[in-house]
Design a protein that fits this description.
This protein has two domains: 2-155, Ribosomal Protein S5, domain 2 (2-Layer Sandwich); 163-292, 2-Layer Sandwich (Alpha-Beta Plaits), CATH 3.30.70. The chain has helices at residues 55-66, 89-104, 111-121, 123-126, 132-139, 176-182, 190-209, 212-218, 224-227, 235-244, 269-282, and strands at residues 2-11, 15-35, 40-43, 72-78, 142-148, 151-155, 163-169, 249-252, 259-263, 287-292. The strands form two sheets. Strands 1, 2, 3, 4, 5 and 6 form a six-stranded mixed β-sheet that branches. Strands 8-9-7-10 form a four-stranded antiparallel β-sheet. With 300 residues, the protein is α+β, with helices and mostly antiparallel strands. Strand 5 and strand 6 (151-155) form a beta hairpin.
């Protein structure tokens, strides 16, 4: 059974562990089949082959145990989403595997149940089960984590017309996601909470109503992104410059280092490309730009 999952950008500014956007910039392909070994076998290039250290394998192990499935399975993973760039690579493999297993064994899981198993695969990647990236890997589109326990996901109805630019720097850091999460403050002030809530409410409202100004105001974060400034010193400069060129807004994609930019027909596209190059060149950072669009749904 074959399933595909696309790249994603979590957080979207103020929506830390709450919001995720699926896009078609990259995708993973996963094939799951039964075997006679009573084991979980994993194959693929550049990935952990021990199922306990692989997000897809860990999710698969939970399903087989919970559903009392005795047969072994083979998981063939063809990675298309580059790892370590804040594009939901680990979550995509888990989500595709869960969707493939659900179909292979006719388990009739709900989408929220598939998110539950997918998010526990993330433990293998960063030590915690977080549902944001995998939720868009199951639902598509832009998803909101209503509840983590029990898992409840809502897919937002988007009425804003936009395109996506991803600025992807040449960057590698061992255990980057785990480190990025460690920088997030454990306590905030009431003023910070109020400002963050204002931003998140505005962002969600703007996406649903199609209000460009609300999205532009809302896609800013005063807590998580600020705590990670030292990791991505180029980010604030890029964001300020692209907004000057009428981009809707920008944010760090997941745990970074990729920057997600939303733009539309009001934006100065060529001007955006030029200021990106000026800023990144000023920091002596090589990068690529990937144009993308919202990945709306999966049809397994």
């Amino acid at each position: 059974m074959i399933a595909v999952s696309y790249s994603s950008s979590a957080n979207l500014g103020p929506g830390y562990d709450i919001l995720s956007m699926g896009h078609d910039a990259f995708f993973d392909t996963v094939e799951v089949s039964e075997n006679n070994s009573n084991e979980i076998k994993i194959s693929g290039n550049g990935i952990p082959l021990d199922y306990k250290k692989n997000t897809a394998g860990l999710s698969a192990s939970m399903i087989l145990n919970d559903y009392n499935i005795k047969t072994g399975i083979t998981i063939k993973i063809k990675k298309g989403i580059p790892a370590g760039l804040g594009l939901g690579s680990s979550g995509a493999s888990a989500a595709a595997t869960v969707r493939a297993i659900n179909k292979l064994f006719n388990l009739h899981m709900s989408q929220d149940e598939m998110v539950y198993y997918s998010m526990h695969g993330e433990i293998a990647a960063c030590g915690s089960a977080h549902p944001d990236n995998v939720s868009s890997g199951i639902y598509g589109g832009i998803t909101l984590v209503q509840s983590k326990n029990p898992v409840k996901i809502k897919k937002l109805r988007i009425n804003l017309d936009f395109s996506i630019l991803l600025i992807i720097p040449e960057f590698f850091m061992e255990n980057k996601t785990m480190y990025a999460r460690s920088l997030v403050p454990s306590k905030i002030t009431m003023d910070e909470h109020i400002e963050s809530t204002q931003r998140l409410s505005s962002l969600i409202s703007g996406l649903i109503t199609g209000d460009r100004d609300l999205v532009s105001y809302g896609m800013n974060d005063n807590i998580v992104e600020r705590s990670r400034n030292s990791m991505f010193p180029y980010y604030n400069d890029v964001k300020a410059k692209v907004i000057e060129k009428k981009a809707i807004s920008a944010c760090i994609s997941g745990a970074g280092p990729t920057i997600l930019i939303l733009y539309d027909e009001k934006s100065d596209y060529n001007g955006i490309l030029k200021v990106i190059d000026d800023v990144m060149s000023g920091y002596n950072i090589n990068y690529i730009i990937k144009k993308s669009k919202l990945m709306e749904a999966y049809n397994d």
